[in-house]
Amino acid sequence: MAGLRSWLRAVLGLALFLLGSYAVIRWVLPLILPFVLAALLAELINPVVDRLSSGRRLRLPRGLATLLVLLVLAGGMGFVTTLAVAKLVRELRALAMQLPYYYALAMDLARSLAAEIGAYSETLPSSVTDLVSSALFRLQNLLAENLPEVLHALQAFAGLPGLMINLLIVAVATFFISRDRRQIGRFLLGLLPPGTGDKVRRVKDEVWSAAMGVAKAQLFLISLTTLLSILGLSLMGLEYAVTMGLLVGIADLLPVVGPGAIYLPWAVAAALTGRPALGMQLVLLYGLLVAIRQVLEPKLVGDQTGLHPLTTLFAMYLGFQFFGPFGVVLGPLVAILLKAMVQSGLLPIFPAADDER
Asked: Tens digit of pLDDT for each residue in 24-83?
């Protein structure tokens, strides 16, 4: 009976933890996301701020040290972004010189397809051909009006004020969280029941260390994808290998979609424009990148977090099922939090478990 009670308590505790995690991620996190990002950024810059504010030779006021680090960080990001955009603009300008050729090629392809469809349509009933012609006419009008591009541009511009406000909130909140880190920590720990402060600190340290490990693993995988893309595209003799490789790396930031958002449409376009060999090469390169990521990702993330690779893979799968593409990252983080809370005794649902591995 005692064993059954222990099992039921473990199942109930695990279910409550998962339901609470789902509720927090689904409804609470979007409401406080700027402050969560600010807390993460403050934690990232904290070692540098500590060194500037409590060093032996240089001891700046903590507020000034925080402001200085934020300014240097913003300036560095702006400098790198400027260099990247300048490189991208140069290659896009060179690519724009080739647009008339690609336009003519696309028009020839469209005429060839139209001729083939016209020859085939002679064997179809008139009702079917009238329906197809009407649909194509409406589609042509829609494309001619550029409605999707206009709506997309309007949505982007409509979201700019909100984005700027959120970035401002993140910057200001980061400054105050970093400057008053100790006072905020004491206040939050003071809200907890007696005896749980040390456990919460251990959980926070372990989760943060594991989260940084996940970030390092993802950064390594994205960098590997970018470098392999640039190398592979260069070996194919493509003129814009660096630009396209960087775009593939940016696309790799998107969970699930990844490099396929670049390679697959590119391969289809190459095949339709009379270059099937290039299309096949792009598909093979994309397949190689996917295979490398699928093999390395569970192992790298598992090594960085202390989770078994199978547990990591299962957490990524469940995260995707519940939260979509970004759940691939959130799933392992929830598993890390569960592991840390169980090991610290903050969530005593598996008393006999001391390590997952």
From this structure: 999 999 999 999 999 999 999 999 999 898 877 778 899 999 999 999 999 998 888 888
Boundaries of every domain in the chain: 33-97+160-191, 194-345
Torsion on CA atoms 104, 109, 113, 115, rounded to nearest 10: 50
Given a contact cutoff of 8 angstroms between Cβ atoms, the answer to whether 302 and 311 are in contact is: yes
- The one-letter amino acid at 233: L
DSSP 60-117: --HHHHHHHHHHHHHHHHHHHHHHHHHHHHHHHHHHHHTHHHHHHHHHHHHHHHHHHH
Of residues 331, 338, 339, the one with CA closest to residue 356: 339
Q: What amino acid is encoded at 297 in this protein?
A: E
Question: Nearest-5° angle of CA 58, CA 60, CA 63?
Answer: 155
Give residue 23's pLDDT band: very low, low, confident or very high (50, 70, 90): very high
Q: Are 17 and 338 in contact (CB under 8 A)?
A: yes
Quote the tokens at residue 276.
Answer: 């099937």
Residue 302 CA from chain centroid, whole number: 18
